[in-house]
């Protein structure tokens, strides 16, 4: 049976308060008493309970990370960055997955208002079109930092990459490689990140004298089979695209599989690039051209900002946008 702080107090005939202050090296306790407490604690192998002490301080030393998915390598890398920052400050990290569901996201944030976590890092779901649930948790004194997928109107810190510029550069690259009919694969009409990337795609077309055709903008779903059928149908059409910009990583697989089934060659018949952090991108057949996002750095930066806020009493997050640039990595799928 493990010894508790009450057990130490009983053994030394001291109050629990005195034991607690001695263990935290309080100036209120004499050196002699501290020595007695520490010696007995070592002898009995006393281990402090971080959760009990955090409840007394009304702090959990825990941050929540709310994500739409972790199958995407971007979020896996971002979690590593978050963990790196949190461990430096002795914070615990709890991962919550919405699976792209607004209802789940809303329920999670409502649950957080009961003191389970000290702060929240969030990348919103594809279904998230309003922000009341996030504003409510912030009004309850829990700081929130956005990363990657954000809601513009919420006044807090947001860590993103240069989505418009990256999409513009990627689309321009396809045009320079000879593409005339480019297809954009999005995931949501409401999600700002998807729309920002789409605007970069549109601007590149316009600047290069190519028409923006709404039929070439496809909104995919959260269902793999449905996405595959939609992409396959598009590639079978009379006005088949000769270039594809996938706004998220998960849409790369159905594109490659559809091309394989239809006997289309990448990059001869259709050139393909994606926003992606896939480790396997260089070994796909052909190797995939990617907009490579600074996922680890974004997660780490977002966590550092949140933890800095939590480390200062009455500190508030700035309403600011921090942009960490992505890079275009050109490989065989577009050459």
| Low-confidence spans | none
CATH architectural name of the largest domain: 3-Layer(aba) Sandwich
Structural class per helix/strand content? alpha/beta
The Cα radius of gyration reads 26 Å
The main β sheet shows up as: 6 strands, parallel
Percentage of residues in strands: 5-15%
CATH class of the largest domain: Alpha Beta
Our count of domains comes out at 3
Mean pLDDT: 92
Lateral arrangement of strands in the main beta sheet: 2-1-3-4-5-11
Overall shape: elongated
User: Considering DSSP H and I runs of 4 or more, what fraction of the residues is helical?
Assistant: 40-55%
Total beta strands: 12
CATH topology of the largest domain: Rossmann fold
Span between termini: 66 Å
- The CATH superfamily label of the largest domain reads Response regulator
Helix count, per DSSP? 12
Instruction: Give the H and E element order.
Output: HHHHEHEHEHEEHEHEHEHEEHEE
């Amino acid at each position: 049976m493990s010894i508790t702080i009450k057990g130490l107090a009983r053994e030394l005939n001291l109050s629990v308060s005195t034991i607690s202050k001695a263990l935290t090296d309080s100036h209120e306790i004499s050196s002699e008493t501290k020595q007695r407490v520490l010696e007995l604690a070592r002898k009995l192998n006393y281990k402090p309970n971080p959760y009990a002490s955090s409840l007394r301080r009304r702090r959990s030393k825990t941050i929540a990370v709310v994500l739409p998915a972790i199958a995407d390598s971007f979020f896996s890398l971002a979690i590593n960055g978050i963990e790196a920052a949190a461990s430096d400050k002795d914070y615990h990290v709890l991962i919550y997955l919405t699976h792209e569901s607004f209802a789940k996201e809303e329920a999670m944030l409502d649950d957080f208002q009961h003191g389970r976590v000290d702060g929240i890092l969030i990348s919103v779901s594809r279904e998230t079109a309003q922000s009341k649930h996030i504003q409510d948790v912030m009004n309850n004194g829990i700081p929130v930092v956005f990363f990657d997928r954000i809601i513009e109107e919420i006044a807090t810190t947001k860590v993103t990459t240069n989505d418009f510029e990256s999409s513009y550069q990627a689309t321009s690259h396809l045009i320079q490689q000879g593409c005339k009919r480019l297809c954009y694969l999005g995931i949501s009409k409401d999600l700002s990140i998807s729309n920002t990337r789409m605007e970069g795609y549109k601007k590149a077309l316009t600047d290069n004298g190519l028409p923006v055709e709404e039929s070439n903008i496809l909104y995919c779903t959260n269902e793999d089979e449905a996405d595959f059928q939609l992409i396959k149908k598009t590639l079978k059409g009379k006005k088949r695209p000769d270039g594809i910009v996938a706004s998220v990583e998960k849409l790369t697989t159905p594109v490659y599989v559809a091309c394989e089934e239809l006997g289309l060659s990448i990059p001869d018949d259709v050139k393909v690039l994606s926003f992606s952090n896939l480790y396997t991108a260089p070994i796909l057949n052909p190797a995939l051209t990617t907009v490579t996002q600074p996922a680890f750095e974004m997660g780490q930066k977002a966590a550092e900002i949140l933890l800095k806020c939590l480390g200062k009493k009455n500190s508030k997050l700035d309403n600011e946008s921090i942009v960490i640039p992505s890079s275009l990595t050109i490989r065989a799928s577009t050459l």
